[in-house]
Amino acid sequence: MGESCITIAQTVNDKARMAMSSLVHALHELDSYAVARIVAKEGKAPQLLLLAPSIEPELECLVDVPLPFAEDIRVYRFPPLDKVIGSSGTVITKHRYLPSDDLVTAMSDYVDSEYIT
Description:
This protein is an alpha+beta fold. It has 2 domains: about 5-70, no CATH class; about 85-115, no CATH class. The chain contains 2 helices and 6 strands, in the order E-H-E-E-E-E-E-H. The strands form 2 sheets. Strands 1-4-3-2 form a 4-stranded antiparallel β-sheet. Strands 5-6 form a two-stranded antiparallel sheet.
């Protein structure tokens, strides 16, 4: 849903660095993530973030990734690919929008040739 960023402690603030390090190590040891709510600027909409711990030799940080709100998720309904349903509700198995048996076999052979070396 968006770009990921990293969150680090202030380098000149020892108390903040210790608190950040404790949180990062606790999440890492528990093999867990944190969920946070942030308002980046006054008047801006709140954002949900997933915080994942990252421990590198020279850097301990939290990688934050935006999570979608319920209204960000859309449900789309697509018709089935193997049959066409007519206006009266009847199922049509032979239609110009459906592949022929020869086309299905050719596509299957092509996919198999791409993955078998």
